[in-house]
Amino acid sequence: MNIGFIGLGTMGEPMATRLVQAGFALTVFDLNSDAVDRLSALGAHRATSAEDVASKTEIVFVSLPTPDVVQVVALGANGVVHGSKVRVYIDLSTTGPQIAKRVSSKLAEHRILALDCPVSGGAAGAAKGTLALMVSGPTTAFDEVAPTLSMLGKAIYCGEGAGLGQTMKLVNNLVSVTTLAVSCEALVMGVKAGLDPKVMLNVFNAGSGRNSATVDKLPRAVLPRTFDFGFSTALSLKDTRLCLDEAEAMGIPMPVGSAVRQMLNMTRAAYGDSADFTRMICVLEQWAGIEVPLVSEV
User: Fold this and answer.
1) Which DSSP state fits 167?
2) Which of 258, 261, 257 is nearest to 280 (CA)?
3) Which of 59-68, 118-127, 201-210 is least confident?
4) How far is Cα 272 from Cα 252, in angstroms, rounded to an integer?
5) Which residue stretches of 42-163 are H helix?
6) 69: exposed, middle or buried (C-beta count within 10 Å: 0-12, 13-18, 19+)?
């Protein structure tokens, strides 16, 4: 099967790599020539634009950083919409439901079926093929691409409505970053009181405090003080804003989510857009006047 892949960033490159290594004929495009070179070395074909990808392949995946970039790649002057061969467009990005609906509607005018398919599991999950893929859109398109999606992880169909997959991703990410924030608060409080952070995680994970932060994020990136889980503060803040904006449009108050957004804003102000979102514990440490001690093995 000939497949197109646009966007070879932190998530896109490992996903595209899995597809080409699985034997799919892949045509790729990205502004980062080094990433394209790495995929070409594995056997992928180069394209000169998003339109070029969509003129050479019937199924086109995109994995892009922001809603604005997604709109340009999908609908812009040299975008997927102008491709002569594409039939199915699959957006692996996190853009929010409104953009998904807009892109789907415009592509439908050109008889292109659109699936929004945001993913969860980070760069490590992308490399291992263990992502959760939240898919919505026409069932015919989903049925056709489901075997391909299985190369990337577990595809969970969320319904036919455009944007449902995006909504699922936003609320999932809000839960994830919220558990990180409150787990960081608890860890800082416990350490200041004299508790061993390793003991704290053992108790959390043996009891009702267990969550994705205590199981994975804190032991992998905070206790070793590497702060390299693989998700930037800017991207986490983007996803949180998209979720809160959608909730506001629906008339749903999100006071806890709003507090987490403030925590991310403070982390970004202190450490920059590219800082890993696990850096938020450093802001809390400064307020508390302590530092969670280095733990090399958890």
Assistant:
1) H
2) 261
3) 118-127
4) 30
5) 50-56, 67-75, 97-108, 122-128, 139-149
6) middle
Instruction: Tell me if residue 201 falls in helix, strand or coil.
Output: helix
Q: Give tens-digit pLDDT for 15-62.
A: 999 999 999 999 999 999 999 999 999 999 999 999 999 999 999 999
Q: What is the CA radius of gyration of the chain?
A: 20
99 vs 103: CA distance, rounded Å: 6
Average of per-residue pLDDT across 191-207: 97
pLDDT for residue 298 is more than 90: no
The better pLDDT of the pair 270, 1 is held by: 270
Distance of CA 115 to the CA centre of its chain: 16
pLDDT value at residue 297: 60
Residue 116 token pair = 């929004």
CA-based nearest residue to 290, from 183, 195, 200: 195
In angstroms, rounded to a whole number, what is the distance separating the alpha carbons of residues 104 and 75? 10
Q: Residues 95, 96, 102, 107: what is their CA dihedral angle, to the nearest 10 degrees?
A: 50
The whole model's pTM is what?
A: 0.89
**Residue positions annotated with a catalytic role:** 169
Query: pLDDT tens, 247-271?
Result: 999 999 999 999 999 999 999 999 9
List for the chain the helix, strand, coil content (%; round to 5).
55, 15, 30
The enclosing H or E element of 5 equals: strand 2-6
For residue 83, pLDDT over 60 is answered with: yes
Query: Using the 8-state DSSP alphabet, how is residue 150 labeled?
Result: T
Phi first, then psi, for residue 115 (nearest 5°) are -115, 130
Residue 19, classed as helix, strand or coil, is helix
Do residues 20 and 74 make contact, with C-beta atoms less than 8 angstroms apart?
no
Cα–Cα distance between 49 and 76 in angstroms, integer?
Answer: 11
206's tokens:
């043996």
Assess contact for 57 and 2: CB atoms under 8 A.
yes
